[in-house]
Amino acid sequence: MALTDSKPVRKVIKALMDAGLDDAVTELDMPLESPAQAAELLEAEPGAIIVAKVFAIGPRLVMVLTAGDHAPIPESLPAAFFLEGEAREATDAEVRGITGYSADSVSPAGSSHPIPVAIDRSLKRFDTLYALAGDPQCVFKTTVDGLKRLTGGTVSWNIANPLEGDVEVPPMPRNKSFSGERAVPGVESSD
């Protein structure tokens, strides 16, 4: 039996189809152990590899999707999810219970139960992203927009930091009414 026929990978394929996304899953020659190894095998940058981690904030479990060259900032997660309490990485049993996947092969797609998702804004640097597909040896391609559609997640600007070196930060989006002026109509300046 091919890995792409296993129950966890079939869950991912179904989730991709349900979201109207490309449901192609690639089976690799070896299990992935790190974003750097995945990047080498997929001929991509480490930042284009999505790392899905489950955290507990108080009694609530949440999923954080970060770029492979970034690490989650646990102290920032409660505010990103509008929750109170300290964030800690979930145990393997908690991860299996909420997602149906083992902690080493969490996919952003096809969780057994609904889970709030925050997406690292640094993933926007890449046109093509790669995520585990329910098995450490299977991946699928997606985009940030695809991740948002697949998970219902929101892009967060403060949930991850670069692991090393400088990373280009995308410009802050401005709404159309932003003029760049600091003057407030009806209020005199104190110059």
Structure description:
The longest helix has 12 residues, at 7-18. This protein has helices at residues 7-18, 35-42, 77-80, 92-99, 144-151; strands at residues 25-27, 50-57, 60-67, 70-72, 87-89, 117-120, 129-132, 138-142, 154-156, 160-162. The strands form three sheets. The chain has a five-stranded mixed sheet. It has a three-stranded antiparallel sheet with strand order 1-8-7. It has a two-stranded antiparallel ribbon with strand order 4-10. The protein is an alpha+beta fold and 191 residues long. Helix content is 21%, strand content 23%. The protein contains five helices and ten strands.
Topology of this protein?
Blueprint: H1 7-18, E1 25-27, H2 35-42, E2 50-57, E3 60-67, E4 70-72, H3 77-80, E5 87-89, H4 92-99, E6 117-120, E7 129-132, E8 138-142, H5 144-151, E9 154-156, E10 160-162
Parallel strand pairs: 3-6, 6-9
Antiparallel strand pairs: 1-8, 2-3, 2-5, 4-10, 7-8
Helix content: 10-25%
Q: How many helices in DSSP terms?
A: 5
Computed over alpha carbons, the radius of gyration is: 19 Å
Quaternary: single chain
Q: How many E strands? A: 10
- Note the beta-strand portion: 15-25%
Structural category? alpha+beta
Ends apart, CA distance between termini = 75 Å
Succession of helices and strands: HEHEEEHEHEEEHEE
Strand order of the largest sheet: 5-2-3-6-9
Shape: globular
Largest β-sheet summary: 5 strands, mixed
**Unreliably modeled segments:** 166-187
The overall pLDDT average reads 86
